Amino acid sequence: MIPVTSFAGKTVAVFGLGGSGLASCHALKAGGAEVIASDDSNDNLAKAAQAGFITADLRKVSWANFASLVLAPGVPLTHPKPHWSVLAAREAGVEVIGDIELFCRERRRHVPDAPFVAITGTNGKSTTTALVAHLMREAGHDVQMGGNIGTAILSLEPPRAGRVHVIEMSSYQIDLTPSLDPSVGILLNVSEDHLDRHGTIEHYAAVKERLVARVQPQGAAIVGVDDIWSRAAADRIEQSGKRVVRVSVKNPLADGISVDHDMIVRTSGGARREIADIGGIGSLRGRHNAQNAACASAAALALGVSHEVLQKGLRSFPGLAHRMEQVGRRANVLFVNDSKGTNADATEKALSSFSDIFWIAGGKPKTGGITSLADYFPRIRKAYLIGEAAKEFAATLEGKVAYEISETLDAAVPAAARDAEASGLSDAVVLLSPACASFDQYRNFEIRGDRFRERVTALPGLKPMG
């Protein structure tokens, strides 16, 4: 835990008592603050009270003595309209911040030079965060990883010289971190997302840009420049006098890092140097992962990792569970768990990474279904449809892709394994990438992916991977 000493002797309101909210309560209390905890959920209030915190309805207390309101990132700050607690704080002149802001203040107060890598982007944040952490561990560093990727930042070990904090940040978290100042910042990409919470793509992109715009003066702002929003952000940041490392997987760069086939290349002053080869690394398959690898490599190099250690770290990266996770092989078939593919856009990245696919898809359908994936239908040898979306997906695939309605994973996995092996294809892939939410049959995509993994590993003769 990271005690938040910057609020010692002060009273702080915390609204939103999920994982990060409760972690904030504990960290503030450990640092000497008085905490008033609040939530719209009675269950969350009860959990906070059981943990020993004072709870209150913030609509019924005086805000005069509050030094700050620490807001959970899931609570609306601006759109579709500010939460009532935000309006109350503003009326009382109380700052509204998040848990990563508390971390930034502690780091600045005690060890401002401690390495801090912050990562954002519409897609690829979690993989890049995990990869940067893996690379830094391979280089022998003490690494703390958290933020949006799972572990609340204040539940990590405190900053200190030589300890690297690698933190994934959503746009919501950036919005609540006004003094964000990483030593290395990564902006992977920007595309339309979360407009219900940001109003317009322009506002959403501006929030994302803050993460790299506020990198420390001697730090590195690493920006993927394959979309117009990120490209414009890189230009603005460079014009402000900060060091920008541009990254592209679509085009060679005169100055920056690009990917030429499977080679990550750095070009500077007309000189070209090969950094690392990502060919044949299953956990980094596909152009989207090439971008993740290139940006993570740029961060590792900025933090002093050698090319030799970088290459070794890329090759040993296991990937993330439920994101293009290679579960195992049997005979000619690779089994891949991409349960995180909860919509068509996410599934597109998986389908684009393989050629001979036996596709398990379906669940609770999203608007638009799988019609946008039509360009990838020629890659699919057969589909195995599960859940509520099975009939809708069957109608879309009719006459274009062979399919069967399996209804459940328990039926789909052995059927897909049987057909893939019988196909005689040298690189057949049984791919779970549902293009659907899991809620019709599973509580979350993790449980769905775990079930797929269980069914695959139970197949006779399977050779596990990862």
The CATH topology of the largest domain: UDP-N-acetylmuramoyl-L-alanine:D-glutamate ligase
Distance between the termini: 30 Å
Structural class: alpha/beta
Binned strand content: 15-25%
Radius of gyration: 23 Å
CATH architecture of the largest domain: 3-Layer(aba) Sandwich
Overall CATH class of the largest domain? Alpha Beta
Q: pLDDT below 50 for ≥5 consecutive residues: which ranges?
A: none
SSE layout:
Layout: E1 11-15, H1 19-30, E2 34-38, H2 42-50, E3 54-55, E4 66-71, H3 84-92, E5 95-97, H4 99-110, E6 116-120, H5 125-138, E7 142-147, E8 163-168, H6 171-175, E9 184-187, H7 195-198, H8 201-213, E10 220-224, H9 228-239, E11 244-248, E12 256-260, E13 263-268, E14 271-277, H10 287-302, H11 307-316, E15 325-330, E16 333-337, H12 344-351, E17 356-362, E18 364-365, E19 380-386, H13 390-397, E20 403-407, H14 409-422, E21 428-432, E22 436-437, H15 445-457, E23 463-464
Helix pairs in contact: 5-10, 5-11, 8-9, 14-15
Structure description:
It is built from 15 helices and 23 strands. The protein has 466 residues and is of the alpha/beta class. It folds into three domains: 5-97, 3-Layer(aba) Sandwich (Rossmann fold), CATH 3.40.50.720; 101-316, UDP-N-acetylmuramoyl-L-alanine:D-glutamate ligase; 325-464, Protein-Tyrosine Phosphatase, Chain A (Alpha-Beta Complex). The strands form four sheets. A nine-stranded mixed beta sheet has the order 7-8-6-9-10-11-12-13-14, sandwiched between helices. β1, α1 and β2 (34-38) form a beta-alpha-beta unit. The mean pLDDT is 94.
